[in-house]
Records
---
Amino acid sequence: SQQGEEDPQALSIQEGENATMNCSYKTSINNLQWYRQNSGRGLVHLILIRSNEREKHSGRLRVTLDTSKKSSSLLITASRAADTASYFCATHRYSGAGSYQLTFGKGTKLSVIP
Amino acid sequence: NAGVTQTPKFQVLKTGQSMTLQCAQDMNHEYMSWYRQDPGMGLRLIHYSVGAGITDQGEVPNGYNVSRSTTEDFPLRLLSAAPSQTSVYFCASSKGPSAYEQYFGPGTRLTVT
């Protein structure tokens, strides 16, 4: 079953604009991670935010986490053509029987037009 | 460091054939995992390992076997390929359990006819 769901499914913006992607999830989590995937490549980790954190920054990336609403957002400021990729959120949670799992959403496809 | 490597990059199988997808990492990571990525489905966990000799099932384990005899290698075996196993397969590793950031390989694109 899908734990994280990104919104929107696709986003097209002009270079220089900001891009915001959202992720909603269903059950409590330990942390939430954002990944980027360029076409035909593997995923690359962008940022990890723990359940007791509300906001985190890394360069042009800003991630927020609202555990009361079970949602997170990824903001990319001053976008560049090179930011064109799919972005995935992944939730780390207890999955039962002493196990933890990282569950990925379906992704947001971002296109940045030069 | 090469990071996480996967071979082959592409593979075409006939229904019923078996094969092994190779995955290796040189970062001395304890945790390794296999995912499959299908259009519109995101990534789904197949199997994972928390260390040499220890493996466990993920969300979609049927039709796949794994073993972990060394820290570096985590091969994925398809026992009897089916068209439903057509997908892109990614191997990932991390220094600890899945709470840590995952390092992904470049993927293997598998087609089963």
Note: The radius of gyration of chain B is 13 Å.
---
Amino acid sequence: EVQLVESGGGLVKPGGSLRLSCAASGFTFNNVWMSWVRQAPGKGLEWVGRLKSETGGETTDYAAPVKGRFTISRDDSKDTLYLQMNSLKTEDTAVYYCTTDQAGITGTPYQFYYYMDVWGKGTTVTVSS
Amino acid sequence: SSELTQDPAVSVALGQTVRITCQGDSLRSSYASWYQQKPGQAPVLVISGKNNRPSGIPDRFSGSSSGNTASLTITGAQAEDEADYHCNSRDSSVRPVFGGGTKLTVL
């Protein structure tokens, strides 16, 4: 069974740091793109950032609000994805989900697609003084 | 623009058909995907690509698109379909984008 389990959330003061983990099982970890998606209380989903697979170049991309503050990495020996969050702001308060991503082109005429097929249950981050 | 727009709330009578829409320029060249999210739970993928349902998703859920608008249709809505529905697509930099979500109420 494909499974993602996040951990590491908690209460942190503004300006502080936190590292989230996402333990993966049931699939070949380094063959997939993976993202972090967050949801602030009462709000919609917001993509945070992504780590491409080894065949995709293992590059990272980040949403503008977190670029320069957040870093995504992974440990293949532990099948674990990480989100290092520094210089945290109150607006970073949210439930953080990790996902596996599928992206490509299909059809005639071609159409792009991008979807998150597996989601973890999430971990809550609260940034407050 | 990479933004996706959804109606904040939609309601449907039990057993009737409801369409939830998602608008954005990126949808002219990219399929929308749809996620169902119940209170306190993680989102669940219900539609991807042209109209693909993952295993376990009832066939009353279907997807379609026209121009810059994608739609999720629930044919014969059930009480358990009451949830938030989020659409997503990708921008020109292959970055995922989400709509603001639609709260579906089944009356």
Note: The radius of gyration of chain B is 13 Å.
